Amino acid sequence: MGITKQYLKSKPICKVTFSVPAEDAKKVAVVGDFNNWSPKGSALKKLKNGTFKGTFDLPKEGTYEFKYIVDGNYVNEAEADRYQWNEFAGAENSVLEL
Questions:
Q1: Which helix (DSSP H) or strand (DSSP E) does residue 4 occupy?
Q2: d(CA 12, CA 59)
Q3: Which band of pLDDT confidence, cut at 50, 70 and 90, is reported for residue 77?
Q4: For the chain, how many structural domains are there in total?
Q5: Which residue spans traverse the membrane (predicted)?
Q6: Has this prediction a pTM greater than 0.85?
Q7: What are the C-alpha distances in Å from 40 to residues 22, 43, 46?
Q8: Can you tell me the distance from the alpha carbon of 46 to that of 72, in angstroms, rounded to the nearest whole number?
Q9: Residue 3 to residues 87, 88, 90: CA-CA distances in angstroms?
Q10: Run of H or E residues at 61
């Protein structure tokens, strides 16, 4: 798994690219507090090499909790900036710091 961050000089935005290697998966989405934990509109596109990838514009100077949904199962990002306990979920979430 992996995250790439590209900060724009002209706008207060960071282009964040999420990459999830999941050859056997049918669907992967990224959900978090930046999209109200909704998988609608946050599906990642499957590439020929079996990696799911997607880029999202997120406001700079923010901290976001998120997870991947891989075929209905919630999965954390191994390379997250850190992890944070979420009482509502009863589990740790990945954290993205911009």
A1: strand 2-7
A2: 6
A3: very high
A4: 1
A5: none
A6: yes
A7: 19, 7, 16
A8: 16
A9: 25, 25, 24
A10: none
Kindly state the tokens that stand for 47.
């590439």
What span, in angstroms and rounded, lies between the C-alpha atoms of 86 and 60? 23
| Domain region containing 17 | 2-97
Residue whose structure tokens are 């000089």: 9
Distance CA 72, CA 25 (A): 10
What is the domain-level CATH number for residue 55?
Answer: 2.60.40.10
Q: How far apart are CA 57 and CA 26, in angstroms?
A: 24
Place of tokens 């990002």: 77
Using only the alpha carbons of the chain, give its radius of gyration.
13
Phi, psi (rounded to 5 degrees) for 62: -120, 165
